[in-house]
Amino acid sequence: MNFRGPCFKLAVLLLLLGGVIGDLSAADTRIRYTWIQSRRYIYLRDIASYYNLDCFVTKEQTVLTSKDRKRRLVFTHEKPLGDYNGVKFYLLYPIQAQGIQSYIAEEDFRLSVDPLLRANTLRKHSMKLIMIDPGHGGKDLGGNTRFAREKDITLATARRVLRLLRSKGYNVALTRTVDQDLSLEDRTDYARKMGASLFISIHTNMASPAVSGLETFCMTPAGASSTHGGVKKEKEPGNSYDTNNMALAFEVHRGILRRTKSADRGVKRARFYVLRRVYCPAILIETGFLSNPSEGKRIQTDWFQQMVAEGIVEGVLRYHSAILKAGK
Length: 328
Ligand SMILES: [Zn+2]
Prior knowledge:
Elements: H1 8-11, E1 13-16, H2 17-20, E2 30-36, E3 39-43, H3 44-51, E4 54-57, E5 61-65, E6 72-76, E7 81-84, E8 87-90, E9 96-98, E10 101-105, H4 106-117, E11 130-134, H5 150-167, E12 172-174, H6 184-193, E13 198-205, E14 214-219, H7 242-260, E15 264-270, H8 273-276, E16 282-289, H9 293-298, H10 302-324
Parallel strand pairs: 11-12, 11-13, 13-16, 14-15
Antiparallel strand pairs: 1-2, 2-3, 3-10, 4-5, 5-6, 6-7, 7-8, 9-10, 14-16
Helix pairs in contact: 4-7, 5-10, 7-10
């Protein structure tokens, strides 16, 4: 760890919450911040008191838990890694620690953690149309093995999501309903033209044979690095819902994991085209690895596709109930 900028002790300022972090307004809670590597970081102990959680700082981790043990947040020191109730999510910047204190980047508090804990940080919006986007199609097979093609699995899964969401009373559309070529631009244009309220893109993954598990992506906030690298300063349409993107990604990721019990590769950030160029909350799910021998077989089964679809629906329902309580 490298504390740069002003002397660490001098940089520790005690400020009223409202003055530091826009949305927080508990008048009697104080949040201290410090500068680390030219970035504003917040004391995790103060965040714990703000949420009324207990805080334990060990050498490797900071753990925040509620008295009733229903909420448990774990942050790994020196890594951009969080875990909320057993579900992994990547932060934009590493957690920093020194002695009994640990710190989270203010941007991560606002855009990665607060959206999971407090619905009133989300933007309210209608749920008039949910757009499901089966990845690839036509000449574009996507990930492809001797036994299966990504484009078929994504369409079969999307059809299940469509049926299930409709049975819950939602208005749902697919960007493609058959095996056809469809550019990324056509997908986002269609979502925009139809006035989609949510955009959920479904894919399967490819890597070396040993790798397996579920990954769910949402748009990287402007100026931050994506989980697998790459920084861009410009704000994109997909950044209009930064807090909602995280909440939706987390709920869907959790819903799928609960059913498939896949390895948890975490909620991640990326600037994929379909996440950048949409005007509503959007996520991209990599349901599993076709390139892994056992997972590759599993994700072709009706059971797995049904579990993924049910997990997506549970995530959407939980997200919907959160935005009904949203503040703005
Ligand atoms: Zn794909």
